[in-house]
Amino acid sequence: MTTPSVKAQMPGNVKLAIVGVWVQAVLNLAAGFLVLAVVNDAVDHGRDEGAGLLRFLAVVTLAIAGALLLCGVFARTRSHGIRVTVIVIETLSLLSCVVGLFQGGGVSVLLGIVLPLVVLRGIGSAEARRWFGG
What interhelical angle do 80-100 and 110-123 show, nearest 10? Predict the structure, then answer.
């Protein structure tokens, strides 16, 4: 007689962090496509100064969104690389938002600071280290 395998339950703070990863991925997708649409519209109307840099930033935003989506999808595989990837992306996001705050971003940047902090707290916990095997 064999015993059924019991799947490990993802810790609550890791679940919260993964939800934050999904939210940030969706927001990055929306922002990336919005910036691309605005840049394309500006170029179509002859205002193409700085369009190359903005396009590059939009593509980077979409790439980050893709990486976050993949991390969210494969979080249940418990791979250590997923945890490291999320930590790197969230740290860069947090630094970017802090710079934006000092450049006069105001209250609108606070969500961009709170979300990475919540994700980093969850993904950096001892439970997350055990969950992701690192």
Answer: 160
